[in-house]
Specification:
Largest sheet: 7 strands, mixed
CATH superfamily: Vaccinia Virus protein VP39
């Protein structure tokens, strides 16, 4: 996907008004500018930021249409991917969870400069976020699936929709989690990489352990 195709994809799927385009443009500008101070995205993806990062984040919204009302919680938000992009393209409240000080500062600055009043940052570990029932949980390059589920289970209930980009190992990660976690889950292809995929899951819970006989 070229940068021109990436912009066309966003326009076709979200009918983006000028104000939203301006927000996305401002976000890309500060993202690239901040690269001089910290490694927010891989340097090799700088020329392909719209395809590799903006569309890659925006596509998660296409898998979240069945979610109920409530907050979108993004784990290990880092550079704001997908959190800032989701906040730009939807009215849903977005909570970005990040533990690294420089990333927290970047996210708070981005919220102000991009102008996404529906986004906020929790500075700390995922395990420290107060328990709630998010409508949607996302995590991009945060942790392997079993650890991800374990650290964020307190932020979910049976209706929470988990939308998790997992690259080329999506199916393998899902299979690896099955002995300890159960969920109604499926693997969806990514629009930005034919070999990458997204795990979409609901009703995530630990597998009940059977007690041994006395």
């Amino acid at each position: 996907m070229t940068e021109k195709e990436a912009r066309g994809w966003i326009d076709a799927h979200f009918a983006v008004p000028r104000e939203t385009w301006d927000r996305l443009e401002r976000y890309v500008a500060i993202l690239l500018s901040a690269m001089d101070e910290q490694n927010l995205i891989a340097e090799s993806t700088r020329p392909h930021v719209w395809a590799r990062h903006i569309v890659d984040s925006a596509q998660l919204l296409m898998h979240a249409t069945s979610a109920g009302e409530g907050e979108w919680i993004d784990l290990g938000s880092g550079a704001g991917l997908p959190g800032i992009v989701v906040a730009c393209l939807s009215d849903r409240p977005v909570l970005m969870v990040e533990s690294r000080r420089k990333r927290i500062d970047f996210l708070n600055d981005a919220i102000v400069h991009v102008g996404v009043a529906n986004a906020r940052v929790f500075g700390g570990r995922v395990e420290s976020v107060p328990a709630t029932a998010a409508a949607i949980i996302s995590a991009r390059a945060y942790a392997p699936l079993p650890k991800l589920f374990s650290s964020a289970l307190h932020l979910s209930d049976k209706n929470t929709l988990w939308v998790l980009p997992k690259g080329r190992n999506a199916q393998n990660e899902l299979e690896a989690a099955r002995p300890t976690w159960q969920a109604k889950a499926k693997v969806e292809p990514s629009v930005t990489d034919g070999e990458s995929a997204i795990i979409v899951a609901r009703a995530v819970q630990p597998v009940a352990r059977r007690k041994g006989r006395a």
